[in-house]
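Changelog-adjacent note: as of this version, every example in the card shows the full chain rather than a window. The one below runs 275 residues end to end.
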Amino acid sequence: MLHTRLATAAVAIPLLVWVIVWNPWSLFVWLVGAATLVGVIEYCEMAFPTDLWDRGFGLAAGALLLSAMLVPTQERFAMALAAVVIAGLVMALARKDDLRHGVDALGLTLLGSLYTAFLLPHYVWMHALPDPVHSAIAVGGWRWVIFTVLIAMAGDVGGYFGGRSCGRHKLMPSVSPGKTIEGSAAAVVGNLLGGAFCKLAFFPTLDWAEVVGLGLAVGCLAQVGDLCESMLKRAFGAKDSGWIIPGHGGVLDRIDSLVFPAPLVYYYARFFFGH
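Full-length structure tokens:
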């Protein structure tokens, strides 16, 4: 398992950096959109393993909200969300023999759509931000994307190896039996090291207080996001969200630590970094 994880990471990480930094913004949009859509599919398969009707509606709702998020205007997303809520309530009303099931299914659909199709596309918005280093460059938010992804992934690596080498005390055994307090502490160290690397390599204008603060915030949200994805799997009785990534399970299993930090960094960069 470890060899498979390392082999996958050795291929995926350089490819991801290449797509984020050196390729057209449109290719990055397609990458985020594809990953998000697969995440929607995985969620719906876990939430509705036997009900094809609810699964189909969940996929349609997620795809609609995703398309609205990838064209970032407030009105488009509001219209898409309104359509999903109204259509879901009408569908629940049509189940006159089992109204509770219809309402529960709509709640699960909205949760999954917002968890995946609303949160993840913030990376697209982040990428389109002005360059935080060279003010003359209109679009250069790739630095923020690298900053977020690298800090979260450094925490994943630190937590994985820290937990394997010295993990003794379980963090939340009912949610994620393999995670330990020692691994969580090692993940924070990894977050800070990842932030320091980003500061030196990409963000000379970012002061060290911001690096430490954002590194800790991203790291905490990454760990909470990881635990929340594990909670969803336990609630739905699934071992993995999918099988598409060798050694890692599904897309949601791999990007669970990247979901929650995306809005934080985007809105910080948007409102508090002088742009």
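Structural remarks: Residues 208-236 form the longest helix (29 residues).
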